[in-house]
Every structure is written in C-alpha cells, then in structure tokens.
Design a protein that fits this description.
The protein has 641 residues and is an alpha+beta fold. It has 16 helices and 21 strands. The termini are far apart. The structure holds zinc ion (ZN). Zinc ion (ZN) is lined by residues 324-326, 372, 401-402, 405.
C-alpha cells in the first residue's frame, strides 16, 4: 500500500491500529454535507481568510521585518500563526485540486523566506520591535506555538505539493526554524517548554515527513518536560498551561482547553512513535476525564471565559459556555490520533459529534462569518456587543485563531472519513464520496446526517477477500445492513459492522442507521441544565430558535418556553427550509413567570394554556437569521402540568 496522507501520518513503526488512506484515495463530493462544507471552504472561507490577513495587517507584520512595510505591528503578538494556518489550508486545498500554486501560496512562501533570520528564527512580533525579549518569555510568547503552525504548513506542503517550488520553499523555512529549536532546546540544550502547546504535534509530523529523528526527540522532550514548573506561576497559575503535573501523572484535564487538547494530541503522537504505552494510556485516561464530566452536548469544551478553561467537573452552563471553536478542532484532532492508535469507535463517535455540532456551528452558512465561543444558549436581552460572546457570527476577530483553524480542518476533511489497509477499508464518517484501499474503490452515496441510509457501491474490486468495516455510532440503537438486497445478520463488534468477502464491481451495500428523534437529559450533577431536555437526531443536536416561533408564542419571553415531553417529537422533512430535517415538539409558555425574582418555594407556577408545535433546527444552523434568543437545553413541563 502506498504511503498514507493527511495531517497525521504515523510511521510504519508507530503503534497504530488504523492507517490513514494514501493521497488521492479519499474524495468527498459536494452533493453530501461534508463535501459541501469542503467546497464552501475552498470557494468562500479560504479566500476570506487570505483577504483578512491583508486587511488586518498579519502580512504587513511580516513585511515590517523585510523592510517592505513601514508601520506599527498590528494584532495579537502571535498573529503570524493566522498566516501559517491559512497557508496550511491553501496547501491541503492544492492537494485536493492539484495545479499551479495560487498567488497567496507563492507570495507568502517568498515573504516568509525573506523574513526569516539567518539562524532560522521567524516571528514578526519579536523580530521587529521586541528583539530584546526574544526567547525570554516562553510562558507568554507563543514563539514555539508559532513555529509549530509554520511546521504544520510545511507538512501540508510536503504531502500535498512536493513538486511545487513554493511548497519546497515553505518546507525549507520550517526546517530551518525546527533545526534552530533542536539546537537550542534539544538534548543537552536549554530545559524549556512553550506556554502554548502545538510545537509537539508539529515536530512529530515533521519527523514523519523527513525521517529526521531529532525532531521526534525534541517533541518527546517537550512532552516530558511539561508539568515540572518551568513556566512559572503567571496570571492563572501553572494549571492554566498544564505545567502543574506531568502528563503521565495527570488524571484530570485542566486549564486552558486549547492548550490542553493540543498538548494531549502531541502526547499521543509522541507515545505512538516511541512505543510508549504508558503515555498513550495517560492520554486515553485524560480523554475519559474530559468526556465524562467536562464536555458539552455539542462536543464543545471549556466553561470559563476568564481563562478559556475547562471548568470544574459538571460545570457546564449552556449560556456561559465558552466552547471555543479551536478547542473543538483540537479535540477533533486529539480524538483522530486516539482513533488511529487504538481503533476504538468511541473516538470516531466523538469526531462525528464535534463535526456536526461544536465545529459546524462556528461557521455561517455563507462560510465567511464565524463564532469564536459557541454557547448552547443565547438569552433574551443578551449584550452581544463584545467579541467574547456576540449574538451573531463575526467576519473576523482581534484574536483570529478560529477562522483559519477551520479553514485548515475543512481543507483536509476528506482525510478523516476513512482509514484503510491492503485488505480493507474502515469508514468512520459517512459522507458522499469515493474511498480506495487495497485496490478496491467504494462509492458512497448518502444524504447523511439527514437521511438514515448510506449506500456503498463497489466500483473497483480487490482480488481476494477484502473487509469493509462500517461504524455504527453509539447513538444508533438499530442498524440494518444488506448486501445486494439481502439482509445481513451481523452485529457490530466494538462499534463496527464488518463484511469480509471477495467483492465484484457493482456489489452494493446498504446501511440503515435508524434516527428517531431523541430526548436527552444531562447527568443530574450538571446543575445548570437540571429540569431540561435537549433534542437530537442521529449525530445532530437541535435547538429552539426565536425565529421559528409561531405567532401564538412569538410574544412570550423565550426563556419561559417549555417542552412537553408527553407529546412525541417528530422529524419533519423540509427541503426548502433552513434545514432539510427539523424536529417538531410541543412547546408552551410557563404561566406565572412574571413576578418577583425570588419567591416562595411553594409557588411552582403552572404550564401555560397556549401550546404550539414548534420546529427545532440543527444547533449548527442557529444565528443564520435575525439575531434572537436560542437554546439547546429546553425546560421540560413537569408531569401533571
Ligand atoms: Zn480559536
């Protein structure tokens, strides 16, 4: 089998239960939702990001270093990373649609090369105006984080466009910076770590691209040095940047969410390349910790705005959810690494949940406006004037980490859908497209997640037995499988239905994943949503949005609305509406809500008399119409009301 492709490609020696598909072996088509998102990214988001880098001064910051721009530094001190992430996205896109590198890639590659110091250093904030502080404030500086994103762009360049001159230029720039890091901080060098992880995954991937072991050794060293107090106390204490305890010893995710999940993604990379089972187990243990008490229903993580942190266990307020887009992306990348390492379906389940909820909600339907934080509730009267929690998506942010992070994920989305081996294909995410492994090609046709049916047709057959493995999501209680029209009675094993046979072109497999609407309740310790229910269908979490209220309820205060769980929720198809499938629930307004803020406990109020059937829409589609209140967790009418 030819070499695997994508942002994460473990070496042949790595601990890996699954292998990413080779270049050109996975395609998403735009008639499916994931392919539609990928095309939207290519045509709208990527261009938007490139223009924003010009408009907001990120490229000008680098031109200050080369002497081609005379003006102040603008934006966050790690603004270079937005350039690197957009570049990475453009390079994955170049791999998807080979051709000449676009002007953004060639011009940016030349700019980075020109801006780089002779010793390999490249960070426009420190190079022009803050030279004296270079390498002196690693807890704060993001210098290695910035290097990490440059390296990730180089990984995309090497894997997607190796023959392109601009791609080679980017790889050269990144390697010179990586070599400088090895020289300064490698074995025998300075004991230090970066306040914001990212360099760990990047260095492991650069090792995977180049085979140069010092990059892996440095990543291993950074993971090992963390948790020993090298970063000091700073404003939020060592837990903020996971420097309070070594990764191997930690039993709880903590601190700044993006830093934590990036660190743990890096820990998995280091563990699998070094055959370090203890470190891999630690990453799995911490994943359990996150998923059991510190993750929103949407897959989002982080309930603290102040320090962008995981809160306490079960501290998951929907209206104050921070749930940064980058945290969801980082969590997706962490889960992908754990899936590759272990083959456990639960990690693919989580990727799916993140994709259709926590991640998808961040982007407007047009692809050029984004959420940074992703609350599960927007209240009536919310002050959305601040960037921290706007009422609608914004086109850019003063800290614009999220939009280009979305762009690079979406540009490489096809590489996450399936894995393969010489004797089979494992499908993890269902989307219209084609996938090839071991000489066999399968065409997938589906309107998932709106439709329950996934049809797979063999277009090129392998010689001899070949196994098709299809994930059965944990939310699905009834999966039916047929081959060429005949029902196959096979139960899912460890989350996958496996079909082994000698296939012929034209063979057709049909998987039906029953998607009845589900009413979900949270663990009782999640005080913030006690007494409420959420709606879901398949992998999609739904929400109630003000725009969908009928006239009879439109005058009510949105927070007074309750869902009557005794009336069945129905899925309704509406191809012309905002969503192909909405969930219709019986909603009524609570009477007696007006009155004192605090009152006798005996006064429980009564259900209102006006009830109406209201369509709930997929959470990820909220805030695409006029600004107004929204909620995922809906108070339930108490029994007897
Ligand atoms: Zn972000």
């Amino acid at each position: 089998m030819t070499a695997s492709y994508g942002p994460v490609v473990p070496t042949d020696h790595a601990l890996a239960a699954l292998r990413p598909l080779p270049a050109g072996a996975a395609h998403l088509t735009p008639d499916g939702l994931l392919g539609e998102w990928q095309d939207r990214n290519a045509t709208a988001t990527l261009r938007h990001c490139a223009e924003a880098l010009e408009e907001h001064g990120n490229l000008a910051n680098l031109r200050r270093v080369t002497g081609d721009h005379d003006g102040p530094f603008t934006g966050m001190w790690f603004a270079d990373t937005d350039v690197h992430k957009t570049l990475e996205a453009a390079l994955w896109e170049l791999g998807r649609s080979p051709g000449r590198a676009p002007a953004f890639v060639t011009e940016t590659a030349a700019l980075l090369e020109k801006a780089q110091d002779p010793d390999g250093y490249l960070d426009s904030f420190y190079q022009a105006g803050h030279r004296e502080r270079q390498w002196t404030e690693l807890h704060y500086s993001h210098e290695m984080y910035t290097a990490g994103h440059l390296i990730q762009a180089a990984v995309a360049a090497a894997r997607s466009a190796a023959g392109d001159a601009a791609a080679q230029q980017i790889v050269g720039v990144a390697r010179r910076f990586a070599d400088l890091l090895v020289q300064r901080y490698g074995t025998g060098g300075i004991d230090a770590v970066c306040g914001h992880p990212e360099i760990e995954t990047a260095l492991v991937e650069l090792y995977r691209v180049t085979g140069h072991r010092p990059y892996l050794a440095l990543a291993t060293r950074f993971v090992g040095l963390r948790g020993h107090g090298l970063l000091g106390d700073d404003r939020f204490g060592p837990r903020y940047f996971q420097d309070h305890m070594p990764v191997q010893d930690a039993d709880e995710v903590t601190g700044h969410v993006v830093r934590q999940v990036y660190l743990l993604a890096g820990a998995v990379d280091v563990a699998v390349e070094n055959g370090d089972q203890d470190l891999l187990r630690a990453a799995e243990r911490l994943w359990e910790s996150a998923l059991s008490s510190k993750t929103y229903l949407t897959g989002g993580q982080g309930s603290r705005h102040r320090d962008e942190a995981f809160g306490d266990p079960y501290e998951l307020p929907p209206d104050r959810a921070y749930a940064e887009t980058c945290a969801a992306i980082g969590s997706f990348q962490w889960a992908w690494r754990l899936l590759l390492a272990t083959g456990r379906a639960r990690y693919a389940d989580e990727m799916e949940r993140l994709l259709y909820n926590g991640i998808a909600a961040s982007t407007a339907t047009g692809g050029t406006a984004f959420f940074y934080s992703n609350p599960l509730q927007l209240r009536t009267g919310h002050d959305g004037s601040g960037e921290d929690a706007p009422s609608q998506r914004l086109s850019w942010y003063s800290c614009a980490c999220c939009p280009p992070n979305l762009a690079r994920l979406m540009a490489s989305l096809h590489t996450y859908a399936a894995t393969g081996s010489p004797t089979g294909l494992q499908v993890h995410l269902y989307a219209a497209g084609t996938f090839t492994a071991g000489g066999q090609t399968v065409r997938v046709e589906t309107a998932y997640p709106w439709n329950e049916t996934v049809s797979l047709t063999v277009t090129d057959a392998a010689e001899g037995p070949w196994t098709l493995a299809l994930r059965v999501p944990a939310w699905c209680a009834d999966a039916r499988l047929s081959v060429n029209g005949s029902l196959v009675r096979a139960g899912a094993q460890e989350g996958y239905l496996r079909l082994t046979r000698t296939w012929r072109p034209g063979d057709r497999v049909e998987l039906v994943l029953a998607m009845p609407p589900r009413l979900i309740t949270a663990h009782p310790r999640v005080d913030a949503v006690r007494g409420t229910v959420a709606l879901a269908r398949g992998p999609v979490v739904y929400c109630l949005e003000h725009a969908d209220l009928p006239a009879t309820l439109a005058g009510e205060v949105f927070e007074d609305l309750e869902l009557d769980p005794s009336v069945p929720v129905t899925a309704v198809r509406d191809e012309a509406g905002i969503a192909p499938v909405t969930l219709h629930a019986s909603i009524r307004a609570r009477a007696g809500a007006a009155g004192a803020l605090y009152r006798s406990a005996a006064d429980v109020g009564t259900a209102g008399t006006v009830a109406a059937t209201v369509p709930a829409i997929p959470y990820f589609l909220w805030a695409n119409r006029a600004a107004g209140p929204m909620r995922v967790w809906i108070p339930r009418t108490p029994p007897g009301n």
